[in-house]
Amino acid sequence: MERKLLTYEEKDTWIDKLCGVTKLVFFLCWSVTSMMTYDTRVLIVMLVLSLIIFKISRTRWDQVGSVFKFILLFLIINIIAIYLFSPSEGVKIYGTETILYGTGRYALRAEQLFYEFNIILKYFTVVPSIFIFIVTTNPSEFAASMNRVGISYKVGYSVAIALRYIPDIQGDFRKIRNAQMARGIEMSKKGRLVDRIKSTTAIIFPLVFSSMGRIDTISTAMELRSFGKHRKRTWYMARPLMRNDYLVIACSVLFMVVALTVTYIDGSRFYNPFV
Amino acid sequence: MKNCVIEFVNFTFKYRTQIDPTLHDINLRIYEGEKVLIVGPSGSGKSTLSNCINGLIPHIYTGEQKGDVLINGKNTAETSLFDLSCMVGTVLQDTDGQFIGLTVAEDIAFALENDCVAQDEMKKRVDEIAGIVEVGRHLKSSPGELSGGQKQRVSMAGVMVRDVGILLFDEPLANLDPATGKKAISLIDDIHKKTDTTVVIIEHRLEDALFCDADRIILVEDGRIAADMTPDELMSTDVLVRAGVREPLYVSALKAAGVKILPEDEAGQIDTLHVEKHSDRVRSWYHKQPAPPAPVYGDEVLSVSHLSFAYDQSRQVLDDVSLSVRQGEMMAIVGKNGAGKTTLANLICGFLQPLSGEIRLNGSDISPLTIKERGEHIGLVMQNPNQMISKSMIYDEVALGLQVRGVPEDEIKERVNKVLRICGLYPYRNWPISALSFGQKKRVTIAAILILEPEIMILDEPTAGQDYRHYTEIMEFVRDINERTGTTLIMITHDMHLMLEYTDRAVVIADGHLLADGTPASILTDDVISDRAYLKRTSLYDLAHACRIDDADGFTEAFINYERTHSRGQHDGT
After folding, report:
1. Chain A contact for B152, CB < 8 A?
2. Cβ of A182 and B389 within 8 Å?
3. What CA–CA distance (Å, rounded) separates B122 from B140?
4. How far apart are CA A6 and CA B278, in angstroms?
5. Contacts of residue A228 in chain B, CB cutoff 8 Å?
6. What is the model's pLDDT at position A188?
7. How confident is the model at residue B43, as a pLDDT?
8. Which of A157, A153, A160 is nearest to A137 (CA)?
9. Can you tell me the distance from the alpha carbon of B284 to that of B54, in angstroms, rounded to the nearest whole number?
């Protein structure tokens, strides 16, 4: 079959067999830790761990590759922007100034490089965990687990349905793109970038309209089958938490506590190699 | 006297966004255990009627109403949609769009989950219902992977799981190939008999829907009930034709032969029809028909030889398909959903690359051509016009293909105007596309392809979901294009009427193989081919047989030719 980006795929791994709620707890602990800490030691440990987990989850590159490239683009824009707007941010944080090259406002400083290196690390610790979470969590279980951690099932369901529609919308996208290319709208790499950006509107319009049609149908179908009747609902796919689930949840929480303690023990969220 | 479960009392309804009421003064009673068919052209109000039964009106679609709708004696305006949905189960038209659960089991369980049924009981109930509709083996599959017929079963299970007393089917046949449609109708019939539910079917494909007997047919026309009678009585009138609903073909053929059908002929179904006393008349009519003119074509424009394709090693989608298309032909590619029809079109257009085999256009191999270059010779019109239209004005949409090719503005203007005239859209050239009807949008997409002056145009399901009037409008337009411009037309379809009435040749693809290549009449009168291609033998065959006409194929062609020449007269000037 054609490749499907960022969609759930059943794989026979222990990660796959965990409850959705376990994965959600892990994902939340992991992201919180990664967002709070600027401690390079913690970040490097997290990076190594996330690569190992990525490997164990057997997530394939073609499931996430193009999204990853897209995020990478953002990362590059992000670090360039930091440099442009605040080229001596690192100096403020670490309290020393080591000029490596050049003079004036845009002089290249070791502190700045180190600071931006930490930001890159943060991206690389969070992104794999997002991917793993999405491609190993059965969307229907996803809604059930969000409900379990206290989020309204309506919110959970709308997210789950959005996830489920990703493959359909990708299919529509491909169909529309093909038809528009046959009409002569250049979308291959041969065309100029400006033309290609312009021509994407030729896909977006039809795509939005056909997706709105889908939304209309599904909401009617849900309404007619009493979605939202009670404040609670039961779940066909609900699974009880198993030994592995408790272990993973415990490890996640423990890891978060340890990582944040290590980070804040010296009173700053930054690890300072310069003093 | 049985209980009245659905009752409309002097009911009038106007949507909030519309000026005139969609339904006028409806009085209707449907009794417990009845099976009722509601027919009518698009825009007649039959869908509105169905939305009133399941409570979407007035709870979701608001408007002004006079009079009452009572379901099991309860006024829909005063009963919540949740309570109504426990009494009326609705199976929507779009078999793909209505799936909510990720697996079949979850989808069936959805309503139970919302009712807070405990997990054990839910599983028991799902197994039981899945058994009734025979999808037990697929509980863990994703609904999207199932065949069209199985999908329909799953959606039925999803509403039957709550023990509803009334089952409402909104155009159950719209997305099914003829053979699957036939099975769906028998399944509905089966459930109706087994469970004693009241069944209401909204459909415009009357002949297919009548495959199993119905107690009554209600014809809706312009928001009013134009007829409410048994199928046998209805066939003896001409209200269907006047309302723009297609009669069963055998009924049209009988009428063409000058037979006056009476209720006691039991013409509601071909199996019950008493044809003996009319057979002489039909035979003599047949012998008087002129031989259909043999179509004339030009040279070969497209040849496909030994074409094979697979997404991966395990599943061959097309296997060694060869065919030749001549200039000016109107040809149909038919076969069940997923047989490989669309794949063939995608290969011809260059969206996919073949595993082996060759495609030649005017004698030269097209494999080096890009999608864009092929698009100048072979145009593709997608099934849903909304998937093609990217501009807001008609002129811009049609001009797009020339603009991106750098054609000078003067020439574009001239060519767009010419195409708009051919397509009957010239008066609307400065209109926004959003103001057009579905059929007119379809014309815009055809015009947008025609402007590139392709030798071949491929139309994917050009009439899917269209009622008889719009079907005729689109197809007459397409035929006109073929006659005026000599464009070769290849239509991917599973509409048997379309292939009979508008094509000279049908290529049947089944499970990736080319199964047959011949006249539509010969294919639709051949049981073996029809079965394998998930088509249905045309009722004209049965009529010919019953009238002791040996050449059923010839009879079918003669009748279609008669229809063509006569309907031509009616449609000229529109």
Report:
1. no
2. no
3. 15
4. 64
5. 114
6. 64
7. 79
8. A160
9. 50
pLDDT at residue A15 in the model: 84
B111–A226: do the CB atoms touch at under 8 Å?
A: yes
Counting Cβ atoms within 10 Å, is residue A5 exposed (0-12), middle (13-18) or buried (19+)?
middle
A250 has a pLDDT exceeding 50: yes
Residue A237 C-alpha, separation from nearest chain B C-alpha, in angstroms: 7
Q: Is B468 helix (H, G, I), strand (E, B) or coil?
A: helix
**pLDDT at res. B1:** 59
Cβ separation B405–A210 shorter than 8 A: no
Quote the CA–CA distance of A203 and B438 in Å, as a whole number: 20
pLDDT in tens, A53-102: 888 888 888 888 888 888 999 999 999 999 999 888 888 888 888 888 88
- Residue count of chain B: 574
Q: Give me the interface pTM, i.e. the ipTM.
A: 0.78
| Side chain identity, residue A225 | R
**Beta pairing, strands B300-312 & B356-361:** antiparallel
pLDDT in tens, B247-291: 999 999 999 999 999 999 999 999 899 988 899 999 999 999 988
Interface probe, candidates A166, A236, A239, chain B, greatest B C-beta count within 10 A: A236
Per-residue pLDDT reduced to its tens digit, B233-243? 999 999 998 89
Chain A: residue whose CA lies nearest to B84: A224
What average pLDDT does the segment B69-87 reach? 93
Q: Please report, as a single letter, which amino acid is at residue B463.
A: T
Tell which residue, B20, B27, B7, has the closest CA to residue B63: B20
